[in-house]
Design goal:
By secondary structure, the protein is α+β, with helices and mostly antiparallel strands. It contains twelve helices and 48 strands.
């Protein structure tokens, strides 16, 4: 059977987002994202929002919805000082009558970087971390039955005495209330904290703490459900003091594993007599995580770590992207790049991202915020608090396989790290701790040694021997970063550079996988990211990604994509070369690398079969090593009447060497071989030139099209052609055409790419894509985006309306592309204008 699959270098595998799975909802939480007012300039008078909201224009207040960034920025070349401001967010609301007398708290999931919160003019609290959630108890400040106001002072300056600040930081830290907000409304007696551990043997332990002691008889009832809501186990325990520990073993629970990531929902209820006083729900997975000197096992199966580091930033939006875009990144990592792991460098990231990792079986290493620098006492206290917040707020995600409890690449500080380890272990005894070093011989207070191994130079071994990095050979070990700044690679760099970048990722990934005792390697980084002035290429961008800023794949992405088995992920066939000699010094393009998960690659020049090639033996750690095509002639000379049989092998070797090195730079043995040929009567320079043009040359009548075919189990499963471009085509690939503006705004990601008629990216096309959007949505960023490396991107966001929208993308030389969007708006009708004092529709408090 011959299956024709149009597979191109850069669009080898792009995913469409499925509709959201439903992470467990909390019946006592109301979305609180709409109806905010924002000013980039905080003034102390804004503490009392009531007065300010009567004259919003006087304070420069504009309507805002969360997630929100203090400043939308250009794609590159902007200063971090632009977002390092103290800004203000104000909001009015009236409580629903049935909420009177309850405990009312405001939960802010993520605010960059320091928060001071006021309710009705009074200080409620502060939070000194830009990456963990904070909860503010408003109860005693509220006016029941009247309008209430909240003001949030958001400090995004780098002078803050909290992680990650104090030294330099290689990423922009942005500003704003950039994750969602919730109003949490519960009975005064409620479940204050929950710790949920679900083991691979089906045992579940729930530790619940009550808000206060009471004389009533309280029971905590735990119900374990399938995601369709059907209950499969139930247990309860009385509250003793303020704590209840409920344990059960669920025989029917299905295990969670990377290959089969089955999730369950646990509902925890506080019950007095027949009355349910409070309820919390979590989505969980049953699995056992075990690291040791051999590597990582999940439910006793060895798992090889192959992945990338992720920052949480986007072009234009900084940190402020809603659920769909967060989830898309997990889809890209797992389904496009076949990664088994992601490291959320260098801070805990959105629950939407983690929820999707849980659903996909994509493993996660997360860590406390920080970058190399350790500050003074206040700073260290905050790092310890961040550890506790990270573990308590993220512990229900089964995808997390280790807690990073050290500041990334910091020096040893045994006192501090003894404390962070103790905090993490007390809160979650089931999962190991780790910490990322950039030097050998660090004191290991954690369970797992993580090492940023940047030792590969392109010529040497991919990774260091574990024993030269740590004497702790019985401890788990993995490479937490590699490549990155060692070989910055822009999407628009020339082919040789892009190939070298991809091969570095291949070498490190292979050598880490092949070394016993090394659980795997996580490359730096998933995509190019905005950085501060001390880093980057002078444009405030670290071009370290295997994807570009818009998540468009560079060549190195193909190395990752090709590691996924074809039966699970589909066939991958990505020739590393566009087969244009003119992109290479001397016109010599040398060996051609092909990234594929097939058994073999067959090469055709035009329609003539050249040869078949198998994966290279030089990458023994890779499931699917790249194929190296070192012969563009094959057996064709046998049928050529001009080629004497006795000279055939020497002529072929000479032609290939000329293609590889150029006539002037032939190495000594090939020069000698050519000399010997020239001394024979049956060979001449003219014949050589004729044969070169016939089989290898790519000009005049012989401008060649090279066809690659991936062969799997004897079948051709993919075909790719590389040759001269005659026609251009613009691809606009949207992750969704159906946006839902419900609890907050929604965002579609559109990846743009200019290709030729064979699907090959036009890397050097210097053109601008012009974007127009009509309808009930809005374009994020400019209307004109330049192609870089043949690719660009854009975003479409909802604006609180239902309806339709059409995006039209045009570029010179190609047909325009249109994408239509359906915009669903199930909850609010015109809520984007700040509507003050309106009670909550279901699920929201807007
Ligand atoms: C590492 C660091 C990363 C990033 C990377 C660049 O040292 O941990 O945050 O800066 O280098 O390669």
């Amino acid at each position: 059977m011959t299956q024709q699959i149009p597979t191109t270098v850069e669009t080898a595998r792009t995913v469409k987002r499925e509709e959201f799975g439903a992470p467990a909802s909390d019946p006592h939480r109301f979305a609180f994202n709409n109806g905010w007012w924002f000013t980039p300039t905080w003034a102390d008078e804004l503490r009392d929002a009531k007065a300010a909201l009567t004259t919003p224009e006087r304070w420069g207040l504009v309507a805002a919805r969360l997630p929100h960034t203090v400043r939308e920025h250009p794609i590159d070349s902007f200063s971090e000082r632009e977002y390092q401001v103290v800004s203000g967010y104000l909001r009015a609301f009236t409580l629903a009558p049935e909420h009177e007398g309850k405990t009312v708290r405001l939960v802010l999931d993520g605010v960059a970087q320091h928060t001071t919160l006021f309710c009705n003019g009074q200080l409620v609290g502060t939070h000194a971390c830009g990456y963990t959630a904070a909860q503010y108890d408003l109860t005693q400040h509220l006016d029941w039955g009247a309008e209430n106001v909240i003001s949030v002072r958001v400090d995004a300056r780098a002078e803050l005495d909290q992680p990650p600040f104090g030294g330099v930081v290689d990423y922009m830290t942005f500003g704003g209330i950039y994750r969602e907000a919730w109003l949490d409304v519960r009975n005064p007696q409620h479940l204050e904290t929950l710790q949920v551990s679900a083991d691979g043997d089906g045992s579940l332990v729930v530790k619940a703490t009550l808000s206060a002691k009471s004389d009533d008889e309280n029971l905590v009832v735990v119900s374990l459900r399938m995601l369709d809501g059907s209950e499969i186990a139930r247990a309860s325990a009385p509250v003793v003091g303020v704590q209840a520990i409920v344990e059960l073993v669920a025989k029917e629970a299905q295990r969670w594993s990377p290959a089969s990531p089955t999730l369950h929902e646990v509902s925890v209820r506080l019950v007095q007599g027949d009355t349910v006083i409070d309820e919390r729900r979590k989505r969980i997975g049953f699995r056992t995580v075990h690291w040791d000197g051999q590597g990582l096992r999940i439910n006793s199966e060895t798992v090889a770590l192959r992945g990338l580091n992720r920052h949480q930033s986007w072009p234009y939006l900084g940190y402020a992207a809603p659920a769909r875009a967060q989830r898309l990144d997990a889809d890209i990592l797992h389904r496009e790049l076949a990664c088994t792991v992601v490291r959320t460098s260098h801070y805990p990231q959105s629950h939407h991202f983690l929820d999707r990792c849980d659903e996909l079986g994509l493993l996660v290493v997360t860590e406390i915020p920080g970058w190399q620098h350790i500050g003074g006492d206040t700073w260290k206290r905050q790092a310890v608090e961040n550890t506790s917040d990270m573990v308590s707020q993220w512990h229900h995600h089964p995808s997390i396989i280790a807690w990073g409890v050290r500041i990334n690449e910091s020096a040893d500080d045994d006192e501090l790290y003894a404390e962070t380890n103790a905090v993490a272990r007390a809160l979650d005894p089931t999962r190991p701790t780790t910490g990322v070093r950039n030097f050998a011989g660090s004191n290991l207070l954690e369970d797992v040694y993580a090492f940023n191994d940047f030792s590969h130079t392109g010529e040497n071994a991919g990774v260091k021997a574990k024993g030269t990095v740590t004497p702790e050979l019985n401890a788990g070990y993995f490479v937490s970063e590699h490549t990155g700044h060692m070989f910055p690679t822009k999407a628009e760099d020339d082919e040789a550079h892009r190939v070298a970048h991809a091969l570095r990722h291949a070498r490190v990934t292979s050598d880490a996988a092949a070394q016993p005792g090394v659980a795997g390697a996580i490359g730096w980084s998933m995509f190019d990211y905005a950085t501060q002035r001390d880093f980057g290429s002078g444009d405030r961008i670290c071009h370290h990604g295997v994807l570009d800023l818009f998540r468009g794949p560079k060549l190195a992405a193909a190395l990752y994509a090709s590691q996924g088995d074809a039966d699970r992920f589909g066939p991958v066939l990505v020739p590393a070369s566009a087969m244009h000699g003119g992109d290479h010094a001397g016109g010599n393009f040398g060996d051609t690398i092909v990234f594929t998960n097939a058994d073999a690659v067959r090469l055709f020049r035009d329609d003539t079969f050249v040869a078949a090639f198998e994966p290279s033996p030089l990458f023994p750690g890779l499931a699917h090593p790249p194929v190296v095509i070192d012969d563009l002639i094959g057996d064709q000379l046998a049928a050529d009447p001009e080629v004497p049989k006795v000279l055939r092998n020497d002529i072929k070797a000479t032609l290939m060497d000329v293609a590889r090195y150029g006539l002037e730079a032939l190495p000594a043995p090939s020069r000698d071989r050519l000399q010997a040929l020239l001394e024979s009567e049956d060979f001449s320079m003219e014949l050589g030139t004729r044969l070169f043009t016939r089989y290898l040359g790519a000009w005049g009548d012989r401008a060649a099209a090279w066809r690659f075919e991936a062969v799997l189990d004897g079948n051709t499963v993919a075909r790719v052609t590389r040759g001269p471009a005659e026609q251009l085509r613009l691809i606009a690939d949207a992750d969704t055409q159906h946006l839902v503006d419900a609890q907050t705004w929604d965002l579609a990601t559109i990846r743009l790419r200019l290709v030729d008629e064979h699907g090959a990216t036009q890397h050097y096309a210097r053109r601008t894509v012009h974007l127009e959007l009509d309808g009930d949505a809005e374009l994020v960023g400019p209307h004109d985006v330049p192609l870089a490396g043949g690719a660009a991107g854009t975003y479409v966001r909802t604006i609180g309306r239902g309806g339709t929208a059409t995006l039209r993308a045009t570029v010179a030389g190609a047909e325009p592309v249109e994408i239509s969007f359906v915009l669903e708006h199930p909850v609010l009708d015109s809520a984007v204008e700040a509507r003050r004092g309106i009670n909550a529709p279901e699920g929201t408090y807007s």
